[in-house]
Write a structure and sequence with these properties.
The complex is a heterodimer of chains A (363) and B (330). Chain A is mostly helical. Chain A is 70% helix and 4% strand. Chain A has helices at 15-39, 44-56, 59-84, 92-109, 114-143, 147-167, 200-217, 219-229, 231-236, 241-268, 279-289, 294-318, 324-344, and strands at residues 3-9, 345-351. In chain A, helix 4 packs parallel to helix 6 (147-167). The longest helix of chain A is centred in the middle third of the chain and has 30 residues, at 114-143. Chain B is globular and about 75 Å long. Classes of the chains: A mainly alpha (363), B mainly alpha (330).
Chain lengths: 363, 330
């Protein structure tokens, strides 16, 4: 039987398609992940009920989701901002660790009251994360060295440095377990009254607002978007791609660095090796889902936070590896880019028609 | 010292095989115009698939083939998304790496503490027993596992394929100038599919070698960034198989140094001037955890030096890399 597929570019995207795409992609990813659940003989409907409905209807689950949103939205912004300039920061995970190291060190070694110590530690974390991302940023801006490879490789370096420090110079406690001393109370985020979520949550919201304002209202933000959509035109308009590229990596890395300290200060209370379950990598799908605005990054981060919390619930209830979350998040994006195609082209499939005689090798 | 050098070389050669497989696959894929950032994911899938198959059947050759097949399968997704749907090669590749990492963590948990009988050490038939007698390099080069020999043999084969066969020249044409290649009657889409799938098979082989011959176990995330190093290696090699071999040995040596560094003592005598400053620094630099960062730092360094030394034209990247090809349809 002959199958004829015709592609034609769409002139405009139907509204149902534009609105429905994120929903369809998430549902598609969940449907395919159900296959993995069935392979481990778990009832997918019961599993998804545990993951989503039970998490969202339980105050503890909601609190946890809010707490998990903090590192995800901050690392999400760390990927999102360079993405607006057309660059890839695949190493938010490493920047997060550098921020955690610097922030923890300040928290342990500087004695100040809380109102001064926490901002100082956040600042230190931002500087450490920013400088760590600044290395690939500078290499890209100066010599056009591929930033995807350099950001990713520096992640391995950062996690090894953290691993060395908590087993060596920064090791605290009784000395048997890798990890620093407990942060003093003055360096731990207090809980927000009533919500019972640590105050790092507010830092995350602040970062979203700052990014939105930066991109929509400032000259620097305009240059970022302009260079991102057309670097050559940007140069002709007198913009410096060097400055823009360095800027997005410094600021993006700073966000990731803050994410690291927030997680230590608000959740872990001490620096331990491998404290991040890959926040900086989940940040990539988050930034892609939210690529149209900082607030969407926040929504995407909340969605993935829910996946994380629901995923660990699933692990407890059914013994399913929490890595299912990683599978779902990658599938969401793969479906999303498939959907982009459907948005751009009409696909007409006809069965049983003779193909028109054309040059050999029509694909 | 001779014993140490021979041992180090042996470890370096064994550690380089994974880079040879992965970099050769990436070269073929990129020569056809498609960047594959999913290598790391394809390697992981190949490593787990190969390991599980061998653990169940006891047949490491079957495991190796399954590893290659799974790498190819993941590459098929990449090919479909990038070639047929013309999606971003960067997004698709990164997501496939995340997908491969997630899938292997998910399904790999059950295989973590299993042991297998993987590829045994062997010598080449007939001449092998004499070749291993060569001082220092003999053991390193000529007593290895079968995949090590295959990888070495693939270097000239891929070179010959790309630069001396019609099919290879068509691959290069498709990566340099797809419009012209199409006009000359080359099927651009089919050719690119072939390149991406071959690249996936090589990445799967790299992973299967890792779990079946190199470490003979499965560990979560065991590729540890080697796929990304291979991507950088291709730039260093300027998309040429024979230079990729040199790069693979350099990184193999770095890998091996880190494993064998415990026996080295470079500390200055306490009486030497500056010993108080130099020795703690040396101690830090020779710490195994710190040394494990050297391959990544070296990759970045090599990448910077390569890119700074050549301008874009001199580097020799395929001109149509990252560009999806659409045919005028009317």
């Amino acid at each position: 039987m002959n199958v004829s597929v015709e592609l034609s570019a769409r002139k405009d995207v139907p509204r149902w398609l534009a609105v429905g795409t994120p929903v369809f992609t998430v549902l598609g990813a969940l449907a395919l992940s159900a296959v993995a659940l069935v392979a481990l003989s778990v009832d997918p409907i019961a599993a998804y009920n545990t993951m989503f409905v039970e998490t969202l209807t339980d105050p503890f689950g909601l609190r946890q989701t809010a707490t998990r949103t903090v590192p995800l939205v901050l690392t999400g912004l760390a990927v999102y901002l360079p993405l607006r300039a057309g660059l890839w920061n695949v190493g938010a995970e490493g920047q997060l660790y550098m921020g955690a190291i610097a922030g923890t060190w300040i928290g342990l070694n500087v004695s100040l009251p809380m109102v001064a110590l926490i901002p100082l530690a956040v600042l230190g974390a931002a500087v450490a994360g920013g400088l760590w991302a600044g290395i690939p940023g500078y290499l890209k801006a100066k010599w056009d060295v591929n930033e995807i490879i350099t950001t990713l490789l520096l992640t391995f370096v950062a996690t090894q440095i953290a691993s060395y420090l908590v087993r060596g110079p920064m090791q605290g406690g009784s000395g048997n377990f890798p990890g620093s001393d407990l942060l003093p109370d003055a360096a731990q985020f207090p809980a927000i009254p009533l919500l019972d979520v640590h105050a790092g949550f507010l830092v995350g919201l602040l970062a979203v607002a700052a990014t939105a304002v930066l991109l929509a209202r400032t000259r620097a933000g305009f240059e970022v978007t302009f260079v991102g959509s057309n670097p050559l035109a940007g140069v002709q308009a007198g913009m410096s791609t060097f400055r823009v590229y360095l800027f997005v990596f410094l600021v993006g890395g700073a966000f990731a660095g803050i994410a690291g300290f927030n997680e230590i200060s608000g959740v872990q209370e001490r620096l331990i090796p491998e404290f991040s379950p890959g926040y900086g990598f989940t940040a990539i799908p988050i930034a892609l889902l939210g690529r149209n605005g900082a607030v969407r990054v926040l929504l995407a981060a909340a969605f993935f936070a829910l996946l994380f919390v629901g995923g660990s619930k699933l692990e407890v209830a059914y013994g399913v590896p929490a890595a299912l979350v990683d599978v779902i998040q990658a599938l969401v994006i793969l479906f999303l880019i498939t959907a982009e195609f459907v948005k751009r082209y009409r696909v007409d499939v006809e069965l049983g028609r003779e193909p028109a005689a054309g040059p050999a090798g029509e694909a | 010292m001779v014993g140490f050098t021979a041992g180090l070389l042996d470890a370096a050669v064994r550690a380089s095989t994974v880079f040879i497989f992965a970099a050769l696959g990436e070269i073929i894929s990129e020569r056809g115009g498609v960047l594959n950032l999913g290598v790391e994911g394809m390697m992981l899938v190949g490593a787990l698939g190969g390991f599980a198959t061998t653990a169940v059947t006891g047949n490491y050759w079957l495991g190796f083939l399954v590893g290659m097949a799974l790498g190819t399968l993941l590459a098929l997704v990449h090919a479909f998304l990038c070639i047929t749907l013309k999606s971003s090669q960067v997004i698709s590749g990164i997501m496939l790496t995340l997908l491969g990492t997630g899938l292997t963590t998910f399904f790999g948990a059950a295989w973590v503490d299993r042991s297998i009988d993987g590829f045994p050490q062997m010598t080449l038939p007939l001449v092998g027993q004499y070749l291993v007698e060569i001082p220092i390099v003999g053991e390193a080069l000529f007593r290895s596992t079968a995949p090590d020999f295959i990888a070495l043999a693939l270097v000239p084969i891929v070179w010959w394929f790309l630069f001396r066969t019609n099919l290879g020249l068509e691959v290069i044409a498709v990566g340099e100038d797809p419009e012209t290649a199409d006009t000359m009657g080359v099927d651009v889409f089919k050719m690119r599919y072939l390149c991406v799938l071959l690249g996936g098979a090589f990445a799967g082989a790299a992973g299967a070698h890792l779990s079946l011959a190199f470490s003979q176990l499965w560990a979560t995330g065991m590729t540890a960034g080697r796929g990304w190093i291979a991507v950088a290696l291709v730039i260093f090699a300027q998309w040429r198989p024979e230079r990729a071999l040199v790069g693979a040995y350099i990184f193999g040596l770095l890998d091996a140094l880190q494993l064998r560094s415990q026996g080295i003592d470079l500390a200055l005598d306490a009486a030497t001037p500056l010993a108080g400053v130099v020795n703690p620094v040396l101690e830090l630099l020779m710490h195994p955890t710190i040394m494990s960062t050297y391959p990544y730092l070296a990759t970045i360094l090599v990448l910077v030096v390569t890119v700074v030394r050549f301008d874009e034209a001199g580097l020799g990247a395929p001109s149509a890399l990252l560009e999806p090809y659409s045919r005028e349809t009317d």
